[in-house]
Specification:
124 residues, alpha+beta, Cytidine Deaminase, domain 2, 4-stranded mixed beta sheet, 4 strands, globular
Length: 124
């Protein structure tokens, strides 16, 4: 997926090149299904129009962002949302997040860490 973003195969919904910084991938430990999420909400090909009710509850409990971004902006959010709307359980997910440009592992931001780190397994 990273290479597809970098070489322009995967593009914004408007057709432009993706300039997001973060890519997350989750694998369901029980089914082996994979889910992807790119950070950002505008023209993001991994962004869905609907938020799963369980994920919305997590966001509602958090209420206030600890960063300059909305709580639903991150690649982790988009990845988890795909999985939940597919019928998978959040506790069955193993997630790995990278910086798209460097390809290096990226720690969760303060928001994602407080909302998801106790629910999913983080792969480093």
């Amino acid at each position: 997926m990273r290479n597809s973003i970098l070489n322009g195969t995967v593009r914004k919904t408007t057709g432009g090149k993706i300039d997001a910084k973060v890519l997350s991938v989750a694998v369901d430990k029980k089914t082996g299904e994979m889910f992807y999420g790119i950070s950002g909400s505008k023209n993001n090909p991994t962004r869905l129009n609907e938020t799963h009710p369980d994920l919305q509850k997590i966001i509602d409990r958090k209420r206030v962002s600890e960063t300059n971004y909305p709580l639903d902006n991150c690649g982790e959010f988009n990845t988890i949302n795909h999985a939940l709307l597919n019928g998978n359980k959040i506790t069955d997910l193993k997630m790995y997040t990278i910086n798209i440009k460097s390809g290096e592992f990226k720690e969760m931001c303060l928001n994602c860490d407080s909302m998801y780190s106790k629910l999913i397994t983080i792969i480093k």
